[in-house]
Design a protein that fits this description.
Radius of gyration: 22 Å
CATH architecture of the largest domain: 3-Layer(bba) Sandwich
Distance between the termini: 26 Å
CATH superfamily of the largest domain: FAD/NAD(P)-binding domain
Largest sheet: 7 strands, mixed
Order of helices and strands: EHEHHEEEEEEEHEHEEEEEEHEHH
Number of helices: 8
CATH class of the largest domain: Alpha Beta
Number of strands: 17
Length: 330
């Protein structure tokens, strides 16, 4: 017989963990299924990343997060969430990918690549970091083109093109430049993104002005080849020598997965998943969304600090519904 739970949570990031803590405190049985390691997205962030949020705004479960500086680093965050998982002894199934979900008689059957589960409710807290926004240009499939960036040392003494002008792009450009890379930024807009961390934005602007980093504004990468790349600039197309391309073009939620679950998506470019912001329940009864996945392509709308409360909303609604069901009002 399949293991049965009140709630199955898909995604073992900070928000999925906060949902599990809320379920645990409410006396509901639960399991977290995560396709990678604990807080997998944070693990895949750049090695030297510093959060925009202060440490107390990343806290979950009422567990204090003490960091060396006001804004914690990736390594400090990984340590913190490991401690939270241990403190609550969270019921985790790591490195287990959800394959199919079906529903019969008010219960969901969830099949993974390792097991099968049964649950009355499902919470999807899968984030958005797994599917990069592709440039759809010739050569994008070459090994030299990377949509994820981790350690700047790898690019020392290499000619690196960084595509984009937001936080991830700026961090990659500055860090690789300081490790000895020859950096060229290709930026669609006419300036560095306004949402770039306030203590970093002046730094990259100064590096561009002094010539340490070459930047082409109002420009697009057209094609990539083994030893060079083509850039469309306002003055025309140019070809530049190139060893690596860091395409920091952003990421998107797994919309196909949501659609397969029956979640309605808006017809516009945002692809907003239909859900009640008060309860976080989707148009599918018993199926909830938590965290950044709620924003569709507006991946900048939800962060750890402003979606930590999603778990309490969801579990509160589940507890209320369960009470109504017991009393014959469900």
């Amino acid at each position: 017989m399949n293991p049965q739970f009140d709630t199955l949570i898909i995604g073992g990031g900070p928000i999925g963990m906060s949902c599990a803590i809320a379920a645990q405190r409410a006396g509901l049985s639960y399991v977290i299924v995560e396709k990678g390691c604990l807080v997998n997205s944070l693990y895949n962030y750049p090695a030297n990343m510093t959060f925009f949020s202060t440490s107390e705004k990343l806290e979950i479960g009422g567990v204090p997060f003490v960091s060396n500086n006001i804004k914690p680093t990736r390594s400090e965050a990984l340590e913190y969430y490991r401690r939270v998982a241990a403190k609550f002894d969270l019921n985790l199934r790591l490195f287990e990918r959800v394959k199919t979900i079906s529903k019969t008689d008010e219960r969901y059957t969830i099949e993974t690549d390792k097991s099968r589960y049964s649950a009355r409710y499902i919470i999807v807290s899968t984030g958005f970091y797994d599917i990069p926004n592709l440039m759809d240009i010739p050569g994008e499939d070459l090994p030299k083109v990377k949509h994820y960036y981790q350690d700047p040392h790898f690019y020392a003494r290499q000619k690196v093109i960084v595509v984009g002008a937001n936080n991830s792009s700026v961090d990659a450009a500055l860090e690789t430049c300081r490790k000895g890379a020859e950096v060229t930024m290709v930026i669609r807009e006419n300036q560095i993104g306004e949402r770039v961390k306030y203590w970093v934005r002046p730094d990259v602007i100064n590096r561009i002005q002094e010539g340490s980093i070459k930047a082409y504004f109002n420009s697009n990468l057209l094609a990539v080849r083994e030893a060079e790349a083509d850039i469309q600039t306002p003055e025309g197309k140019i070809s530049v020598p190139n060893d690596f391309v860091l395409a920091m073009t952003g990421y998107k939620p797994d919309f196909a997965f949501l659609k397969n679950l029956g979640v309605n998506l808006s017809d516009d470019e945002v692809r907003l998943p239909e859900h009640n912001p008060e309860t976080m329940e989707t148009n599918v009864k018993g199926l909830y969304l938590a965290g950044v996945v709620c924003g569709g392509m507006n991946t900048h709308k939800w962060f750890i600090e402003n979606s930590r409360e999603h778990g309490d909303r969801i579990i509160g609604h589940i507890v209320k519904r369960e009470g109504e069901s017991v009393n014959g009002n469900g």
